[in-house]
Amino acid sequence: NAGVTQTPKFRVLKTGQSMTLLCAQDMNHEYMYWYRQDPGMGLRLIHYSVGEGTTAKGEVPDGYNVSRLKKQNFLLGLESAAPSQTSVYFCASKRDNEQYFGPGTRLTVT
Amino acid sequence: SQKIEQNSEALNIQEGKTATLTCNYTNYSPAYLQWYRQDPGRGPVFLLLIRENEKEKRKERLKVTFDTTLKQSLFHITASQPADSATYLCALGLPGTYKYIFGTGTRLKVLA
Fold it and tell me: What's the pLDDT band for B6 if we cut at 50, 70, 90?
């Protein structure tokens, strides 16, 4: 039981490049979340999903898109990366009111 | 807008003492509040959840209180150990949604 995994662990992008972050969970959870964590800002919700085929906007959705084609996977896309998107990205899945987080992806946009 | 405040300054305490961390919130009445632990370079790990109708919750050396009048939760670690050194986050579920907001966390350092 791997829990929540994230790919990649680290990435450096140039401004304007695109990329997709992958989150996978093997706990059969319906709810999944993408957060970003910046110094002094705490975790901020980007997008979330309440089930396969559904997505919804969180607190800071601009510049990001998501897809949940399969229950176990939640993808976060950056179409045109900007330096302001330099951050650590965490994915989480939820059972009841308990969130299980992945190890994070550290993204730097130059 | 909804807001959660945690003491952003680091808390240093001696091993064996009780650590007390504070989480204050404004502007709404959550049904429950969660506490998470985060170690450097890792994702948060769920510790405890306390509901609005519970005054206190315990788990081993951890104790959480919830005062809906003061809009405050206190998180206590008794008989603290150096291994308890980490950042502790509080989080609230937004009523009527599946969304959560997190505090910025308080970094705890337990000195041997």
Answer: very high
CA proximity to A92, closest of A2, A4, A22, A1: A4
* Cβ separation B43–A4 shorter than 8 A: yes
> Is the CB of residue B76 less than 8 Å away from at least one CB of chain A?
no
What angle (nearest 5°) sits at the alpha carbon of residue B42, between those of residues B41 and B46?
150
Q: Residue B1: its pLDDT value, please?
A: 66
Q: In whole angstroms, what is the distance from residue A18 CA to residue A110 CA? A: 13
Nearest alpha carbon to residue A8 among A75, A106, A95, A91: A106
Q: Which two tokens stand for residue A106?
A: 């550290």
Q: How far apart are CA A47 and CA B77, in angstroms?
A: 33
Chain A: closest CA distance from residue B91 (Å) = 9
pLDDT digit string (tens) for B57-104? 999 999 999 998 899 999 999 999 999 999 999 999 888 888 899 999
Q: Which tokens go with B99?
A: 């969304």
For A85, other C-beta atoms within 10 Å of its C-beta total: 20
Tokens 């910025």: give the residue: B104
